[in-house]
Amino acid sequence: MRTKQTVLNEMDCILPAKSVNEGVARAIVGAFLAQLDPTVEDLSDLRCAVSEAVTNAVVHGYGRRNETDGTAEHRVGLSIAILPDRVVRITVRDKGCGIEDVERARTPLYTTDPAGERSGMGFSVMEAFSDRMTVRSRPGKGTKVTLYKKMK
């Protein structure tokens, strides 16, 4: 049985699934978490992890076609919550193609990019810059990545 986490403050936003909005997501995280007076290292870590999550949603969830066709329904959700004891929970979600095999996708250097432009390190980077990461995905329905980090 899951218990509901106490949330001290939170925000949600939805961004068009465009690569340029990866920078917007980073800025939103920085601005919202300023209330915690985070260390530069903690803030940099979370911003980097969020960049990877948003990039994965845009590139892998929806594919590059979204960059040029202006499809309105292709969105990336970003939720940030401050929990007790200075724990931050960040969720990035999409309603894209989903991931067939999450465990395999989390393997370093694994990529589904046939052009070879992607390194396959996105999940590894997210894990390295957070204390805990969960990935839930359903093929054809989308993916939700949740990052947790206790701020110093």
Summarize the structure.
The protein is α+β, with helices and mostly antiparallel strands. It contains 5 helices and 5 strands.
Describe the structure.
With 152 residues, the protein is of the alpha+beta class. It has one domain: Histidine kinase-like ATPase, C-terminal domain (Heat Shock Protein 90), CATH 3.30.565. It has five helices and five strands. The chain has helices at residues 21-33, 40-62, 65-69, 102-105, 122-128, and strands at residues 9-16, 75-83, 87-94, 132-138, 142-150. The protein has a five-stranded antiparallel beta sheet with strand order 1-2-3-5-4, with helices on one face. The longest helix has 23 residues, at 40-62. The radius of gyration is 15 Å and the shape is globular. The model has no long low-confidence stretch (mean pLDDT 88).
Notable traits:
152 residues, alpha+beta, Heat Shock Protein 90, five-stranded antiparallel beta sheet, 34% helix
Number of strands: 5
Assembly type of the chains comes to single chain
Strand order of the largest sheet: 1-2-3-5-4
Tell me the helix content: 25-40%
**CATH fold category name:** Heat Shock Protein 90
Q: Please report which band the strand proportion falls in: under 5%, 5-15%, 15-25%, 25-35%, 35-45% or over 45%.
A: 25-35%
Q: Compute the gyration radius: what is it?
A: 15 Å
